Amino acid sequence: MLDVSVKHLSFSYDKDLILDDINMKVKAGAFVCLLGQSGCGKSTFLRLLAGLEKPSSGEILVDNESVAKAGLQRGVVFQDYGLFPWMSTGENIMIALKQKFKNMSSDERKTEALRRMKDVELTEVDFDKLPKELSGGMKQRCAIARAFGIDPPILLMDEPFGALDAVTRVKLQDLVLDLWKKETANRKTIFFVTHDVDEALLLATDIFVFGQSPSKIIYSYSFKNEKKLDRKTMHDDSYVMELRNQLMKIIHNEVRTKSSI
Ligand SMILES: Nc1ncnc2c1ncn2[C@@H]1O[C@H](COP(=O)(O)OP(=O)(O)OP(=O)(O)O)[C@@H](O)[C@H]1O
């Protein structure tokens, strides 16, 4: 469980300013959804959180320590799965476990990989399959099993369901939500990039909207517990639907505001 604090973060690719004075406070165990138009810098922000890029100015603090480089404290799940194509499903998970748990024996790694696969509804039969033999949904299940397997306190997810069909997307949203909720004592802090306002409303405890590049946070919203509804009830709730409309308008530039409704 780690708090994340972003202070006056700016970032440029060469002279091209992409992120401009981003500020954010995120409590340990939050599920943060990042929304914004294409090209506004959401993935860049995630890369900075991962330590794969360095801020041009400002800083990112994880439990009051500045993020200097990539580390096992932060796991990542990308839209394109990021699996090694020459390794089987099981090996893709086991190699990540080897990095994190250096004293684990090969047998223990296999048992743990199978347990993590079961969590995401992959079977023993899938263990030896290569990524090319899996559907997109199965590949993403494998990537999720791997990310949860190394058990990072912070999980960064960049449009993980963007390439999936609607039915698979719903299943995987529920799966990630269940895995995240299950860890009551040690809940991960998740940063989840999406284009989909409904996905954010379903998953997030906190929503941040990025404006157009050079991007600032133009809106933020935190759910109070009683306002957090599930897939079945949220579309019947006038408060959530008002928030949905507001988010749609902000993302499409009809409203420019930083306050909550
Ligand atoms: N390696 C790079 N070098 C130079 N410019 C880059 C690089 N990566 C991204 N950019 C530029 O930075 C800007 C932000 O890109 P980024 O991918 O972070 O946006 P995004 O909000 O995640 O977009 P999308 O929603 O379409 O994935 C874009 O203008 C993009 O062209």
UniProtKB/TrEMBL annotation:
PROSITE patterns the record matches: ABC_TRANSPORTER_2 (PS50893)
Q: Name one GO molecular function term.
A: ATP binding
The record's Gene3D superfamilies line, in alphabetical order, gives: P-loop containing nucleotide triphosphate hydrolases (3.40.50.300)
Domain of life (superkingdom): Bacteria
Under SMART domains, the record lists: AAA (SM00382)
Every ABC transporter domain range: 4-237
Going by the UniProt record, its keywords in alphabetical order are: ATP-binding, Nucleotide-binding, Transport
Instruction: Show which residues constitute the signal peptide.
Output: none
Name the chain's protein.
NitT/TauT family transport system ATP-binding protein
Which organism encodes this protein?
Anaerovirgula multivorans
